[in-house]
Structures are given as structure tokens and as C-alpha cells.
């Protein structure tokens, strides 16, 4: 097949490489000339994705993968178009469709009869049918479900392990009509491989959910579940702090029973997914009080971590405090909705002098993000915000003047912090 992937970011580029690796001819479209040039040179534009560097070079060298800034031309030459362009949420929780609208208009301009169009970006329920179908129809003069097939098929992968996740999780598809769904299922069966999963009620593979709306809701539901679960775990942790109980031991005990799946509490919930998709769900369903309460509980955790620090260290006015980890999670060079920003602001409100350190970022990169980089200044307290593997061995040898450590991820080794008051969220 000739496939066009629109958006060569941390999900789109691995997808393009996956499709090319199955023997198809792929053209990736992106608005960033630098990204396009790097892909055409066989160079990964971002770090941290397992096996992507080798697989990208192989696909480009074999002539199965190229990139362009001309989305409409790439679409016109394709039988299948997969769109993985970011959708943002504003401060009020409303989706900002700007980038996706622009990409959809470009796709429409090149759309030909018989093409399959698949949206993989997470969307509010009803968007594929109610927004993208009319926009594609208006720009192309074609009719969805008649002249071209249209499906929603959410990405369900985690950056850093995209290829493994593509094999592990069923690929969900929902069409705007039965024929679109049939085309979508056939396409993904031709470009993906799946691990055997004895734990699933049915065979791992491509699952037709019946309609685009069901596939849209499935992605929002599975991610919102995680946010709600973490919010509950964080509330358990805060209560455990008041009664002197180690919540980790409690959760471990609870989860030995098959009906309990409590997640881990922590200082922040970050990334492109978990903090964002519940807000998309709330945009669809503003009466969802459980979802709203969980989102508020999780958003409050950086402030709570700083409260724990102040309770142990006393007045923070003028105190130099290092926040360990700018990334939203360990091993990933990404700060989307990272708790580092709220933690730094909470420290400033307390009068502290915050610094930020992260093994994946240079001081210049941190400052470009608006974060005060730690350049070796003496600090008297530390807050662990990201669970980087490097923090497992970090201790007083590196930060000798630290008196209080708040480990928001339970990753530090207490033996490395002898003489320091080490505080964990939830005991």
C-alpha cells in the first residue's frame, strides 16, 4: 500500500516506520522542515524511542519511507492517510482544534476517491463524524462513507516503547459506517503484528468497536480511569500521612485481591495523555463529578509536596531548594504538563529560591523552558519530581548540604540519605 502519515512526532514517526517495516511505501508529512529533513536523512528528530533509530535508517535506506512538508501532495499519492497531529486543551479545558483543523484542510485538498482516512489523535466523542467528516467533505467535494472511508483508531502506546505497545494492545477501530470500519480493520491488520494474550477474552488484534463514537469514548475512558485511580491513590496517601501509615504497604496488600487495582500516588500526573484526556471527557460530559474531583486532586499534589517540605524544614524564605526532574516521567525527555512547573511555583510562593536539575536536560534547555537551572549552587532541600533511574543512587555525596528530601516518586535509596530527613508522599 501507499500510506501517508500526517504528523511525524513521537507517535506518528514510529507509526510510519512500523508501516514501512511491513513492506508498505510510506510518505510522512510534517509542517516542520527540520523534521522532514532529518527523517529523509534517516536521523531521529527526538531521543528516547526504543529501536526507532535503527528501524528508521533501514526504512529510509530501503526506499520505503520518505518525508515532505507538502501534505496535500502526499495525500493525493496515498491509498491510506493516518493523521496523528496534536490536539491541545486550553486553560478552561476546551479543546483547541487549530493544528488538527489545518491538517484536515490539507488532507481534504489532496483527498481522492477510494482513500481510507484514519484519525489516531485522541478526540472528544463525536469529533470524527461531527467535525472531520464535514471538513473533509467540504474541502474535497467527496462524501464520507461513500467516496472515501473514514475511521477513528486511537493510539494506545507510550512514548519510549511504541513498537512494543503496538504489538501488545488490541488496535481499536470505529468507522462512520460499516464499510469504513471494514476498510480500517483490513488496513491495520496489514500493518501491525500482535502478541498472543492469554489474558484477553478474545484474540488480540484489530477490534471493530461498531462506530467512531465508541472508539473515541474507549480512548477517553481508559485514560480517564487512570487519572481517577491515581486521584484516589493520592487521597489515600494524604490521609495515610495524617495517621502515620505507609500507603505503599496498604496498596500492595489491597492489590493482592483480584478486584483491587489501586495505582501509585505521587507528586504529579503529567504527560500529553493523563492530565489532558479527562478534560476532553469533561468537555463532553461536564456533569462527571468524579472525573472533575480526581483531576483537581491530582493537580493539587505539587503544592502538597511543598507543604510537606515546609512542615519538615520550617520557613522556606530564602532557602535554596532543588527540584529533581523536569520531565513528566523518568527516562523521557518531555515536559508536557510536568509537575515541575507547579512545584517551582509553589516553592516561590513559599519564598524559597528554587532550582531545577534533570539528567536529560542541559542548563540552557531548562532555562529555555522558563525553569531556573541548577548549576551546582548549594541547596538545603530537594524535591524529587521525576522518577529518573539516576535518582536511585543519588544522595548526600552529590547534595551534601540537603537537610530535608521530599521524594515524590519513592525512587531514592534511604541508605544514600543518612542524616537527611527523607519524606515520602503517603508515609
Structure notes:
The chain is α/β, with parallel strands linked by helices. 40% of the residues lie in helices and 14% in strands. The protein is built from 15 helices and 15 strands. It has helices at 12-21, 33-40, 52-61, 71-76, 98-110, 127-140, 162-168, 178-191, 212-243, 247-254, 277-284, 289-299, 301-313, 339-349, 363-368; strands spanning 2-6, 25-29, 65-68, 80-83, 88-89, 95-96, 116-119, 149-152, 171-175, 206-208, 320-324, 353-357, 381-384, 404-407, 421-424. An eight-stranded mixed sheet has the order 3-2-1-4-7-8-9-10, with helices on both faces. It has a five-stranded parallel sheet with strand order 12-11-13-14-15, with helices on one face. Strands 5-6 form a two-stranded antiparallel ribbon. The radius of gyration is 23 Å and the shape is globular.
Strand order of the largest sheet: 3-2-1-4-7-8-9-10
N-to-C SSE string, H for helix and E for strand: EHEHHEHEEEHEHEHEHEHHHHHEHEHEEE
Largest sheet: 8 strands, mixed
Radius of gyration, rounded? Answer: 23 Å
What share of residues is helical?
40-55%
The oligomeric state is: single chain
- Secondary-structure-based class equals alpha/beta
Residue windows where pLDDT falls under 50 for at least 5 positions = none
Count of β-strands? 15
Number of helices: 15
Give the end-to-end Cα distance, rounded to a whole number of Å: 55 Å
Net shape: globular
Mean pLDDT: 97
Q: Which strand-content bin applies to the residues?
A: 5-15%
Amino acid at each position: 500500500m501507499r500510506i501517508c502519515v500526517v504528523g511525524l512526532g513521537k507517535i506518528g514517526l514510529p507509526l510510519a516506520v512500523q508501516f514501512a517495516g511491513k513492506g508498505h511505501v510510506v510518505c510522512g508529512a510534517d509542517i516542520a522542515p527540520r523534521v522532514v529533513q532529518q527523517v529523509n536523512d534517516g536521523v531521529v528528530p527526538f531521543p528516547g524511542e526504543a529501536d526507532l533509530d535503527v528501524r528508521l535508517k533501514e526504512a529510509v535506506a530501503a526506499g520505503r519511507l520518505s518525508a515532505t512538508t507538502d501534505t496535500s501532495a502526499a495525500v493525493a499519492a496515498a491509498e491510506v492517510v493516518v493523521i496523528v497531529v496534536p490536539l491541545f486543551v486550553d486553560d478552561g479545558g476546551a479543546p483547541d482544534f487549530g493544528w488538527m483543523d489545518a491538517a484536515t484542510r490539507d488532507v481534504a485538498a489532496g483527498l481522492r476517491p477510494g482513500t481510507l482516512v484514519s484519525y489516531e489523535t485522541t478526540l472528544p466523542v463525536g469529533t470524527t463524524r461531527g467535525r472531520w467528516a464535514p471538513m473533509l467533505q467540504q474541502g474535497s467535494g467527496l462524501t464520507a462513507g461513500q467516496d472515501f472511508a473514514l475511521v477513528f483508531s486511537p493510539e494506545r502506546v507510550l512514548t519510549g516503547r511504541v513498537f512494543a505497545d503496538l504489538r501488545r494492545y488490541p488496535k481499536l477501530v470505529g468507522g462512520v459506517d460499516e464499510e469504513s470500519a471494514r476498510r480500517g480493520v483490513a488496513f491495520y491488520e496489514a500493518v501491525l503484528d500482535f502478541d498472543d494474550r492469554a489474558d484477553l477474552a478474545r484474540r488480540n488484534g484489530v477490534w471493530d468497536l461498531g462506530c467512531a463514537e465508541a472508539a473515541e469514548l474507549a480512548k477517553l475512558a481508559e485514560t480517564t480511569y487512570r487519572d481517577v485511580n491515581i486521584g484516589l491513590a493520592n487521597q489515600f496517601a494524604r490521609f495515610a500521612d495524617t495517621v502515620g501509615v505507609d500507603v505503599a504497604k496498604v496498596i500492595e496488600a489491597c492489590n493482592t485481591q483480584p478486584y483491587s487495582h489501586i495505582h501509585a500516588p505521587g507528586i504529579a500526573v503529567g504527560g500529553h495523555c493523563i492530565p489532558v484526556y479527562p478534560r476532553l471527557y469533561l468537555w463532553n460530559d461536564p456533569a462527571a463529578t468524579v472525573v472533575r474531583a480526581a483531576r483537581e486532586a491530582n493537580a493539587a499534589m505539587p503544592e502538597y509536596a511543598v507543604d510537606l517540605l515546609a512542615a519538615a524544614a520550617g520557613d522556606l524564605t530564602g532557602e535554596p531548594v532543588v527540584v529533581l526532574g523536569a520531565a513528566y516521567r523518568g527516562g523521557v525527555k518531555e515536559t508536557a504538563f510536568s509537575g515541575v512547573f507547579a512545584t517551582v511555583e509553589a516553592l516561590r510562593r513559599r519564598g524559597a529560591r528554587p532550582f531545577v536539575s534533570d539528567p536529560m536536560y542541559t542548563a540552557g534547555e531548562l532555562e529555555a523552558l522558563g525553569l531556573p537551572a541548577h548549576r551546582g549552587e548549594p541547596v538545603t532541600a530537594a524535591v524529587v519530581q521525576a522518577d529518573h533511574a539516576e535518582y536511585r543512587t543519588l544522595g548526600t555525596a552529590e547534595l551534601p548540604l540537603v537537610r530535608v528530601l521530599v521524594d515524590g516518586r519513592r525512587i531514592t535509596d534511604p541508605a544514600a540519605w543518612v542524616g537527611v530527613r527523607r519524606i515520602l508522599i503517603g508515609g
